[in-house]
């Protein structure tokens, strides 16, 4: 019976794909995904039936993938990072009807960015998206507040949306109620994609104009420090 | 110049390792890790110089790996999941002195468990370890409280420690101040390791005796629901 595979391909670079993601793409007849993500796959999808659509076409992609499985084709729908975090796993399971679905996890951008910054996450952390396309801004603000109050390391996805440009500024304002101004902040652009750019700064010194939609921010907790240009969050004690 | 690679091998099964993790292990002369993790690697480490130690030997392993790099050997130190979350990246960077270190990210257990449960994370989430070996219990309690107050999906690592057995009960008690009793909870034992066991329950119905140290718990947010035995957290709207 044909199956729908929801595949997290990691941050973008082939090297961060899992063996299972690669194997599953190879055995799929049809590949569905957002155009730039399909491009990351390069020769892996050569000769396959490919359906790629623009950024806004998520639900359209899900419905198309489900339709292809019903037509008897093994179909892979592509997410970057992990398919189960801000990815395609949710919409597919909400829409799937009676077809068989397998979700293949991947390396999320926050972990890839962390590996490029040092070990900024390491301990308890909260992942928050600043996109208010699907979530009311009030909910996002409350989560930022509670995560900061709990002294979590905070990973910020979608720091800038085409619509409102001041989301990140507002988020930082809230975090500063609980986190020190000199809390280390790592900004990573194009994490895991070869052309990675890294900025190490502090909560009061973020250059907002340098943060784009493809950036991930990692804000430290009260123990996070910088040593040899690496952002380090200890696991709660001092090692010597 | 010899290098120290801190490698996140994913939840355990070979299939969830990234291409880079596999390639890096292959090119390393020396492999250092907790004995059961080394066992996951099987023939990948055949013929290599292997140093494996017990659970309490973490710092000992870090120091040994650093020593081997100073002796000119390319050395890989193994973490399960992602090396940067509750893994070896932090201790290594705290101890590394002047050697070159590269961190290779991986699939963390919460994402592997999520893929086996459906799409329970999907949106903003908090990762919290209940182990108080390195973190005061009061800090852990506060984080559980704030994460629940912020309506985060919550992924619980180390739900049971050999020492105190009532950590999870206490955590649930705190979460019930903000989350409904019928909030879906997914418990996954040995996620991504072939012998995976899954329990779908609710916050008031957790069978604590079935939760062991190798279990990951995912507690839903206020929108999480169960359909066809799958735990689904929507991305903040209804798709139809």
Compact summary:
2 copies of one chain form a homodimer. By secondary structure, chain A is α/β, with parallel strands linked by helices.
Largest interface: A-B, 72 and 72 residues
Number of strands of chain A: 13
CATH topology of the largest domain in chain A: Methyltransferase, Cobalt-precorrin-4 Transmethylase, Domain 2
- Which second-level CATH architecture of the largest domain in chain A applies? 2-Layer Sandwich
Protein name (chains A, B): Cobalt-precorrin-3B C(17)-methyltransferase
Organism (chains A, B): [Clostridium] ultunense Esp
Pathway (chains A, B): Cofactor biosynthesis; adenosylcobalamin biosynthesis
Keywords (chains A, B): Cobalamin biosynthesis, Methyltransferase, S-adenosyl-L-methionine, Transferase
How would you describe the overall organization of this protein?
Two copies of one chain form a homodimer. Chain A is 28% helix and 25% strand. The longest helix of chain A has 13 residues, at 58-70. In chain A, α6 packs parallel to α7. Chain A starts with a strand and ends in an 8-residue tail after the last strand. With 240 residues, the first copy, chain A, is α/β, with parallel strands linked by helices. Chain A is elongated. A five-stranded parallel sheet of chain A has the order 3-2-4-1-5, sandwiched between helices. A five-stranded mixed sheet of chain A has the order 7-8-11-9-10, with helices on both faces. Chain A has a three-stranded mixed sheet with strand order 6-13-12. In chain A, a hairpin with a 2-residue loop joins β12 and β13 (230-232). Chain A has two domains: 3-107, Cobalt-precorrin-4 Transmethylase, domain 1, CATH 3.40.1010.10; 110-232, 2-Layer Sandwich (Methyltransferase, Cobalt-precorrin-4 Transmethylase, Domain 2), CATH 3.30.950.10. The model of chain A has no long low-confidence stretch (mean pLDDT 94). The first copy, chain A, has helices at residues 19-27, 35-41, 58-70, 89-95, 109-117, 137-149, 167-175; strands at residues 3-8, 30-34, 49-53, 75-79, 100-104, 118-119, 125-129, 153-157, 184-189, 197-202, 215-219, 225-227, 230-232. Chain A has seven helices and 13 strands. At the A-B interface, α1, α4, α5, β6 and β7 of A face α1, α4, α5, β6 and β7 of B. β7 (125-129) of chain A pairs antiparallel with β7 of chain B.
């Amino acid at each position: 019976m044909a199956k729908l595979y929801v595949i997290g391909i990691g941050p973008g670079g082939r090297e961060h794909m899992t063996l299972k993601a690669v194997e599953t793409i190879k055995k799929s007849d049809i590949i569905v995904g957002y155009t730039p993500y399909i491009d990351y796959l390069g020769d892996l999808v050569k000769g396959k039936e490919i359906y790629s659509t623009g950024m806004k076409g998520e639900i359209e992609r899900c419905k198309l993938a489900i339709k292809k499985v019903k037509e008897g084709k093994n179909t892979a729908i592509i997410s970057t990072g992990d398919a189960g975090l801000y990815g395609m796993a949710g919409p597919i399971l909400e829409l799937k009807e009676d077809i068989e679905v397998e979700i293949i996890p991947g390396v999320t951008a926050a972990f890839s960015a962390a590996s490029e910054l040092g070990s900024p996450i390491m301990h308890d952390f909260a992942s928050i998206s600043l996109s208010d396309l699907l979530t009311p801004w009030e909910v996002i603000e409350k989560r930022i507040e509670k995560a900061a109050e709990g002294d979590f390391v905070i990973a910020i996805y979608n720091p800038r949306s085409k619509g409102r440009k001041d989301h990140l500024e507002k988020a930082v304002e809230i975090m500063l109620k609980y986190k020190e101004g000199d809390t280390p902040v790592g900004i990573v652009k194009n994490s895991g994609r070869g052309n990675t750019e890294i900025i190490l700064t502090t909560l009061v010194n973020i250059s907002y104009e340098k943060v784009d939609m493809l950036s991930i921010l990692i804000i430290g907790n009260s123990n996070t420090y910088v040593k040899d240009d690496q952002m380090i969050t200890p696991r709660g004690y001092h090692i010597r």
